[in-house]
Amino acid sequence: MLPSGIQQESAPGRPLGRFVPVEGSVPTTPHLAPTPPQPIVLPVTEGTGPAATVPAPRDGDPELVQHADDLDTRAADQEDQEEQAEESTAVVEETRQPTGPAAPAYDDAERAAVLKVMRERRDIRNGFRSDPIPHEVLLRVLEAAHTAPSVGHSQPWDFVVIRSADTRRTMHELAMRQRDAYAKSLPKGRAKQFKELKIEAILDTPVNIVVTADPTRGGRHTLGRHTQPQMAPYSAALAVENLWLAARAEGLGVGWVSFFDEREMVRALGLPEHLEVIAYLCVGYVDEFPDEPELLQAGWSKRRPLSWVVHEETYGRRALPGEEPHDLLAETVAQIRPLDAKALGEAWERQKRMTKPAGALGMLEIISAQLSGLSRQCPPPIPEPAAVAIFAGDHGVHAQGVTPWPQEVTAQMVANFLGGGAVCNAFAGQVGAEVCVVDVGVAADLPATPGLLPRKVRAGTSDMTTGPAMTREEAKQAIEVGIETARDLVAAGNKALLTGEMGIANTTASAALISVFTGADAAEVTGRGTGINDETLARKTEVVRRAIEVHQPDPADPIGVLAAIGGFEHAALVGLLLGGASLRTPVILDGVSAGAAALVARAIAPEVLAACIAGHRSAEPGHVAALNKLGLRPLVDLDLRLGEGTGALLALPLVQSTARAMHEVATFDSAGVTEK
Length: 676
Ligand SMILES: Cc1cc2nc3c(=O)[nH]c(=O)nc-3n(C[C@H](O)[C@H](O)[C@H](O)COP(=O)(O)O)c2cc1C
What we know:
Blueprint: H1 68-96, H2 108-120, H3 135-146, E1 157-162, H4 165-185, H5 188-195, E2 207-213, H6 231-249, E3 252-257, H7 262-268, E4 276-285, H8 294-297, H9 328-334, H10 341-353, H11 363-375, E5 386-393, H12 409-419, H13 423-431, E6 434-441, E7 452-454, H14 472-491, E8 496-502, H15 506-518, H16 522-525, H17 534-551, H18 558-565, H19 568-582, E9 587-589, H20 592-604, E10 612-614, H21 621-630, H22 646-664, H23 668-671
Parallel strand pairs: 5-6, 5-8, 6-7, 8-9, 9-10
Antiparallel strand pairs: 1-2, 2-4, 3-4
This protein binds flavin mononucleotide.
């Protein structure tokens, strides 16, 4: 009953429930046995050895070697130098030999107490009490703050303790104004969630503490601050953490409020103008300390695992201490699982019991079951908020005249997305989704702009008719960009990911990928893209055919295929799909490029399709071929051929509606409705 590509986890002995009949061309035999992922041929990253040390030039070293004598002298000099270096290393190693016992650690109970306070420190907004804070308690907390480390021992902090109800009311008004402004800036899906959140407890706490940093303290020559002036506010932030931990140990809750315009705050509090405000803290006794961050409990965010953020030697070689560095792609693939059979069965059962004729929601019932199996929950979480990730890249094959659009349009459209002026922005605004633009390979320098993730692998691929579009390493790097984008968006609380892309000439690469993975002839899968004429279409088809002939890509080596004929945005989309699936988050596919990427992703990890929902069917012939091969049935079919995630955005409310129906529609027994 699920689209044929989607597999479900078998659960021996567990009833799967009866499948609800639906009309349509959806294949009726779900694969019950999980298929192991195909082995992936990954480029081996060479181990990073210790960095070579280059001796500093010494006085008297000849600038240029002009004579054989000079060479001798130089060689002798170098030998001397190396000997000296060896000696000094030996000396250093000798002095590093431990001579006595190391400084003692805390005993187990003390260490446990330190770790406990760190683990159990919470930011508190709810459940404050009006009980006064004894002076000696507040003093201990401030003393702890005052022992914080600071740049050049400059101790740049001050603490302004506020108890006055009038001052707190003023500060509360300022914070409420900023809260409103922030709420207005949010996509609708987020704004709904935000409305339910309390973000301050200014009036609910007996004491507020303003922590400031004085960037002039310590004088002009503060040690360690000459190249990094931000070290002063960092030091003050460390004082805040000390205060927070000490307060937790005293049973005091602390809530940090950063909904302020800093200068407005300085004026309202009558602070000296040269101070920076680091924190506004609400402090008081509380009913309880929640086990988890309140934002996590509210579904606003997710905790990122430690293993995502620890790198060994070089950024990207992720490994916890004592572990071998793990490959991001292999790790992601290993976490992808088929649909959960139990939740899937419950979903079919529930659909039958909902107050409507069985199967009356057609394809949407299948989607609701898929969402249940994916999340392992029935009813499944409503996929809101959602974000569309638009990966942008340029294509060397543009040089072959496959489109009348100039290449610079890619960068111009990226600017348009960021400025909010594109169709995807209008659609995202309508359905309440966030737009996240990722430069994974645009052939232009893009200025830093809010909403743009700068992740360029290279400024455009090479022309695939004359050589590989990218190296294997680049293809893998772009896949990793997609995986990390999925991780970031999901950790930020998004419950559905939508694919989007922008890249002039990218339907040529899409057609080539689809031809390789479906076996269809170039002529069957090459389309008019942005609306090219017959002559350009003939050329484009020929280009696709030629690229495939040149590379003879092997579909059993999906990364090799991507590298030969893909685009950076295709590779990143592959990563987004794999990343979304590994996090059990639905991914709504947009058009032909997403279809091409899904074929690659499926060749890497067949169960990736458990997370994939085909948002729409585009007018590109290759897209139909891709969807048929994937066994995915599109939700929307409106002859769109735009990309940018527009088709996926239109499908989002359908996916959300079907999940909501699972939550809100009464069952025959609960509503007392007689069954047929
Ligand atoms: C610099 C900083 C600013 C913060 N600003 C706010 C804020 O304005 N409102 C709020 O409700 N929480 C604020 N928080 C609290 C965070 O939301 C909270 O630390 C995070 O959700 C993790 O929860 P936990 O502190 O309980 O572990 C802030 C935290 C920090 C470190």
